[in-house]
Amino acid sequence: MRGATHAKWAAGAVIVALAATACGGGGSSGGGGADGVVSSSWGDPQNPLEPANTNEVQGGKVLDMLMRGLKRYDPKTGEAKDMLAQSIETSDSQNFKVTLKDGWTFSNGEKVTAKSFVDAWNYGANLKNNQKNASMFGYIEGYDQVHPKEGSASADTMSGLKVVDDKTFTVKLNQKFSTWPDTLGYPAFAPLPRSFFDNHAAWLSKPVGNGPYTVDSYTKGSKLSMRKWDGYMGSDKAQNGGIDLKVYTDNNTAYTDLTAGNLDLVDDVPASQLKNVKADLGDRYINTPAGIIQTLAFPYYDAVWNTPDAVKVRKGISMAINRQQITDTIFQKTRTPATDWTSPVLGEAGGYKAGLCGDGCTYNPTEAKKLITEGGGIPGGQLKIAYNADTGSHKEWVDAVCNSINNALGNDKACVGGPVGTFADFRSQITQSKMTGPFRAGWQMDYPLIQNFLQPLYYTGASSNDGKWTNAEFDKLVNQANADTDKTKAVADFQAAEGVVRDQMAAIPLWYQNGSAGYSDRISNVSLNPFSVPVYDQIKVK
After folding, report:
1. Are 480 and 312 in contact (CB under 8 A)?
2. CA 477, CA 495: separation in Å to the nearest integer?
3. 320, 408 contact by CB (below 8 A)
4. Torsion angle, CA of 200/204/208/209, rounded to 10 degrees?
5. Is 196's pLDDT higher than 80?
6. The whole model's pTM is what?
7. Which of 155, 226, 235, 335 has the most crowded CB, counting CB atoms within 10 A?
8. CB-CB contact of 514 with 288 (8 Å)
9. 474-482: Cβ within 8 A, 24+ apart
């Protein structure tokens, strides 16, 4: 799933839904309906449920039940563990040999082979297939031929992928990337059966995977039913009979159904209910860290933000923000003040370093005012923080951030919110480099690596570097970290690169976002993974 201001949260895109494969889809009499089946709130997916075309949470929930790839991220620790991979070997961090485990099949009986992966990856990367996650294959040699930045593709397959035999294939990357195998738990890298290519329309109407569940039926706007697959090969077999994902357009309605006993699970507790949730649910309320960070980004294509003095101004703005007060009052402690540019879910071994931001993220209004003054003051005399006004509670926290800055500067007009009508308009202005001041930004990890929090956002020319920040030392350290064969050394080099982000205050880290959920007394063993998605396969029905 891409960043929190990126495709993951996109609204208004054309939705190509799965065709209904069964009648009905109505509600159940109780929380879960059929014996052993869990009912959960959900939203219709933005795109068809092709692995390389799903980059938002709702579709991702389905793929996590339907598909298994070479790796899977541990639902507790986030560690990338072998799933279909028997081994992934390399001697130079650029050429990899992948060997598959024996015995895996898709739910339609087809064997999962090396070709199942290679064909799926080539399909996902190919420009003509218009897959949202095509860029995930950008590290593989030959990607620029199948998916050029301009013009038509000059090849249908990536030269870096070679099938050796049914159990083996090789991958050549276009640069050294020692931790590349750890990216392979991302859904885009899942295998696909021949039926996907032989009858694409039929597969889209009822997707076939190799995970612990199969798709039973889907009625758009109502319900998608997943059912346990008894032939599943993995150790993470479903502990329930299935999952009914019920569509809600308002999470307040879902929460009401939960408390009324008409729904088993809500994985997005509305902000308006945070004050009541402990009283309503007690220990059936979950509030745990997720791999999401919110930031303020800056338009470095505007010269006023791209000067040595502007570094002082940005650091001063950061120090003027009372993160603790805002996360306590506005977000009811479902956010945690950020002290680095990654996420606590990575753990220390994975690259999270509490306090790396140092004084720059410590509330100090006196020093904040001093730094902003030394830097020549706020460019243009007023800070206008841009945000989309159509979704989320962005106005509330932006106003709180501005109030904190204004108090530090002793000027109630030093900072104001800059609402943009819709998310689409907001993103359009950002991608067209039309921002004149800071704008709300954020990132939800694609995979639990420190690299994913840094390179896509701050590397020169990176796809999600919306502010167009560029720094040669940062780029050099990232390249060095990617080439490191020792993971401990790679993490240290990435943290050195993060130190450059800190010293320049390339973006202002605000807070880490938590995942929240509530569930009925009909189910147990409920948890959220580090991506803030319920671990559906482990839920038990009483």
Report:
1. no
2. 9
3. yes
4. 100
5. yes
6. 0.82
7. 226
8. yes
9. 474/500, 474/501, 474/506, 478/451, 478/454, 479/175, 481/451, 482/93, 482/175, 482/176, 482/177, 482/178, 482/179, 482/451, 482/455
The count of other CB atoms within 10 Å of the CB of residue 379 is 18
Q: Are 156 and 126 in contact (CB under 8 A)?
A: yes
Distance CA(248)–CA(8), nearest Å, equals 18
- For every residue of 491-518, DSSP letters joined together read HHHHHHHHHHHHHHT-SEEEEEEEEEEE
Strand spans (E) along 30-160? 37-42, 71-73, 80-82, 85-90, 95-100
Q: Choose among 65, 69, 73, 75: nearest CA to 52.
A: 69
pLDDT in tens, 443-477: 989 888 999 999 999 999 887 899 999 999 999 99
Report the C-alpha gap between 76 and 99 in whole angstroms: 26
Distances (CA, A) of 245 to 9, 30, 49, 254: 19, 14, 14, 12
Residue 452 has a pLDDT of 93
At 173, list the tokens.
Answer: 């990357």
* Structural contact between residues 161 and 171, judged by C-beta atoms closer than 8 angstroms: yes
Instruction: Indicate the SS3 state at residue 194.
Output: helix
Tokens matching residue 42? 């959900």
pLDDT band at 13 (very low <50, low <70, confident <90, very high): very low
Burial 483-498 (b: 16+ CB within 10 A, else e): bbeebeebbebbbbbb
Q: Give the amino acid at 462.
A: A
